[in-house]
């Protein structure tokens, strides 16, 4: 998805982050976080501008962006659903919950609905083991989830 010439100018908050971190060693991650906060993903056109401003090779930026799962090079759905499959969630029924989300949304893992309203992703750990099994939608945590509660969760974001 290409950014129009009007959008090619960096968002003021990204410009502010670049100015703040321009001469700070190891500041790439906070800049990428700001880019993703603004655009919802890391547009390649914006990464080229970040590369020029930080004097960092684009290959290094792409290496960091693809290493960390928090970053995406593709536009995300409005409501990303992350189903934890860490040990506690796995033994508490994460597989059945994932299957129920697939059925409710008509998609498989790592897919998005046609209207880009939801995406479904398996993650290794959400750090909420005491709430197992747990799912995160956007920044909302849904703990002690059962397959029967999946539709209720989806309906909250409809």
Keywords:
5 strands; alpha+beta; 8 helices; 45% helix; single chain; elongated; 2 domains; 158 residues
Provide a descriptive summary of the structure in words.
It is a single chain. The chain has two domains: 5-67; 79-156, Glutaredoxin (3-Layer(aba) Sandwich). Helices cover 45% and strands 13% of the residues. It is built from eight helices and five strands, in the order αααααβααββββα. It has helices at residues 5-8, 12-21, 28-39, 44-54, 58-67, 87-91, 94-105, 150-156; strands spanning 79-84, 111-112, 118-123, 135-137, 140-142. The chain has a five-stranded mixed β-sheet, with helices on one face. β2 (111-112) and β3 form a beta hairpin. Residues 1-7 have low confidence and may be disordered.
């Amino acid at each position: 998805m290409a950014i129009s010439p009007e959008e090619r100018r960096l968002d003021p908050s990204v410009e502010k982050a670049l100015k703040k971190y321009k001469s700070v060693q190891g500041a790439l991650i906070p800049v990428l976080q700001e880019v993703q906060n603004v655009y919802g993903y890391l547009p390649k056109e914006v990464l080229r501008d970040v590369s020029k401003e930080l004097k960092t090779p684009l290959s290094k930026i792409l290496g960091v962006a693809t290493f960390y799962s928090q970053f995406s090079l593709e536009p995300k759905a409005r409501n990303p659903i992350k189903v934890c499959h860490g040990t506690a969630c796995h033994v508490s029924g994460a597989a059945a919950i994932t299957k129920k989300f697939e059925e409710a949304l008509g998609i498989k893992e790592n897919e998005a609905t046609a209207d880009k309203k939801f995406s479904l992703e398996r993650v290794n750990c959400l750090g909420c083991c005491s709430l197992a099994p747990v799912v995160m939608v956007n920044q909302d945590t849904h703990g002690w989830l059962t397959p029967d509660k999946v539709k209720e969760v989806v309906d909250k974001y409809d």
